[in-house]
Every structure is written in structure tokens, then in C-alpha cells.
Design brief:
Helix content is 31%, strand content 14%. The chain has 304 residues and is α/β, with parallel strands linked by helices. The protein has one domain: Alpha-Beta Barrel (TIM Barrel), CATH 3.20.20. Strand 1, helix 1 and strand 2 form a beta-alpha-beta unit.
């Protein structure tokens, strides 16, 4: 059981117009504070979360520094983390190319892949990816062909597990698994009910390729990005959406759907995504309610 993790908050973030629902962390923080990262990973450990997937932009960038801190602070614990790789959509300089995207993946694997607190399955380090269609395209490539070219440069021997975001199983020709980032939408508020269908696509590709493929079921306690449009950000524009938490009923429903799909793992969106309103860390509005509920769900998942 992993949790999506954002590592880009500063002291002034909590007064931002885009912070969902106007809520605040019970203890406001700066993501660059090693003590804060240590406290958060221990909060997660207490409710049986096994690791974070830190949203990561580029080598030497702020999120990279905080990834290093997360792994350092995790030493001596069973906490095993990875990243949601975002170099291909990073708004910094230089702009993304297939070459520097591949270089960034090699950097992650070479610098961190051997760390004792990096997430591994069967000895292979794990990487998660998002925003698959936004990859740099050369000539008339499809996004799938672009990713294939990048993998041929970055990980030609498939030494790592590459987990793609999205609903297009054709990515499994290049990637080793799928997960879905957003399971509630304005037009499909209960999209998570399709989990078993999505999982079946992964299993079909497993048979087609003769290679093991991983399916990660996604949990979310709710969604609220109604305030997100007040500032520019890197997300693809979509219809603003609020899915009420209903005192935990919304969290339980995606959990039940994910469990029924027989996942290889669960991915919580999120531990602390405050712009999209999916956080489970302690807050002024909810206290520790969603951490406690996470512990309950983790117990059910691991005890099945």
C-alpha cells in the first residue's frame, strides 16, 4: 500500500487561494524540513502505509532534494518509496526532450535504485509515471512509441518495473503495469467502479505478452479542485470537480472496488495533495479521521 506524496509546499502555501476547501494541515509545514518529512513517513507507517510515491520533477530540483531526504529519513524503517516521474512535463529549463527524459530516469535508477529504502519488487526497483500522452514526440510517433524509444535509452534490459498511468492498455507493450490517477470525475463521479474492467485489461496483456504485468488499485478519500483554477499549474485542464468525502464512505467505496479487482498493490491518492483535495494527513477540518480510516483499510487489505 503506497501513498501519493507532494514535496513542494512552503510556509506561504497554506494561505494560497488554490488550497482545496480552505482546509489546512493540523500542523502547517515546509516540505524542505527533514523533521517534517520524518514525521510524515512515521505517520504513514503507523497506519500501515508501506511507502510514498513522491511526485518528482528533475535531477537537482527541489523535489529531488526532498526525495533524497525522504530516503535518508526512512533508513532503519521498513518504509520503501518510489516516485511519480514527471520530468517530461517539468516546467523548468531545459525543456523536455526524449534524451533528457531518458537521462533523468537513468539518474533515478543509478542514484537511488539501489537504496535500501527504495521500493523494489522481486529485487527490481519500481518507477511510476504520469501524464503519459505529454511525452516529447519525434516525427510521427505515438506516445507509446516515444516511451519505447525512451526506455530503450534509459532501461533497455528492463531492470526496473515501469508503471504507467491511465486507461490505455496499449502502454503495456512498453510498461510493466498500470494504475489510474483519478478515479472520480465531474462526468463519472464513481469511475472507480470500473476497476475490475481495468484490471482485466492488464491481465489480458499479461497473457498476450507472456510477461508479468502489475495492476495497482487506486483509493481516494474524495476530490475537490474547485479552487485550483485561481493559479496556473502543470495539470491538464479539466472540468473542476468536487466529490464529497461523506464521512469516509467515499474512501471505503474505491477501496472495495479496488479490492474486488484483485490488485497487486494499492495506491492512495493521496497523503498530502491539498490542491486536489485528496489528502489524508491530519487537517484542521478532519483531524486524524482519514489517517485512522487508512489504518483500518490497510488492515483489511493485508489481512485478506
Amino acid at each position: 500500500m503506497l501513498a501519493n506524496y507532494s514535496a513542494w509546499y512552503s510556509e506561504d502555501s497554506w494561505s494560497g487561494c488554490n488550497i482545496s476547501a480552505g482546509d489546512r494541515p493540523l500542523r502547517p509545514y515546509n516540505s524542505d524540513d527533514p523533521g517534517n518529512i520524518s514525521a510524515q513517513l512515521h505517520q504513514a507507517l503507523e497506519v500501515r502505509i508501506d511507502g510514498f510515491t513522491l511526485q518528482w520533477f528533475a535531477p537537482g530540483e527541489r523535489t529531488d532534494n526532498n526525495l533524497n531526504t525522504l530516503l535518508t529519513q526512512s533508513q532503519g524503517t521498513p518504509f520503501r518509496s518510489s516516485v511519480v516521474f514527471l520530468r517530461h512535463i517539468w516546467p523548468g529549463s531545459p525543456a523536455a526532450t526524449q534524451g533528457n527524459v531518458a537521462e533523468a530516469i537513468r539518474y533515478l535508477l543509478e542514484r537511488y535504485g539501489g537504496h535500501p529504502n527504495w521500493l523494489k519488487i522481486e529485487g527490481r526497483p519500481v518507477l511510476f509515471f504520469a501524464d503519459m500522452p505529454r511525452v516529447p514526440i519525434v516525427g510521427g510517433q505515438t506516445p507509446q512509441q516515444a516511451w519505447a524509444a525512451i526506455r530503450a535509452r534509459a532501461d533497455p534490459n528492463h531492470a526496473a518495473w515501469w508503471i504507467a498511468e491511465g486507461l490505455q492498455p496499449s502502454y503495456l507493450d512498453v510498461f510493466d503495469g498500470l494504475y489510474v490517477y483519478k478515479v472520480t470525475h465531474a462526468e463519472w463521479p464513481d469511475d472507480y467502479l470500473k476497476d475490475s474492467r481495468w484490471a482485466a485489461n492488464v491481465r489480458r496483456w499479461e497473457q498476450k505478452t507472456g510477461q508479468r504485468k502489475l495492476w495497482w488499485g487506486t483509493l481516494t478519500p474524495g476530490w475537490d479542485d474547485l479552487r485550483a483554477g485561481c493559479k496556473p499549474d502543470i495539470r491538464v485542464p479539466s472540468q473542476p470537480h468536487k466529490r464529497a468525502r461523506d464521512d469516509g464512505a467515499m474512501y471505503r467505496a474505491p477501496f472495495d472496488a479496488a479490492l474486488a479487482s484483485q490488485p497487486d498493490g494499492l495506491w492512495i491518492n493521496s497523503f498530502n495533495e491539498w490542491v486536489e483535495g485528496t489528502y489524508i494527513e491530519p487537517s484542521v477540518q478532519y483531524g486524524e479521521r482519514y489517517l485512522q480510516l487508512t489504518g483500518e483499510l490497510a488492515g483489511r487489505f493485508k489481512g485478506q
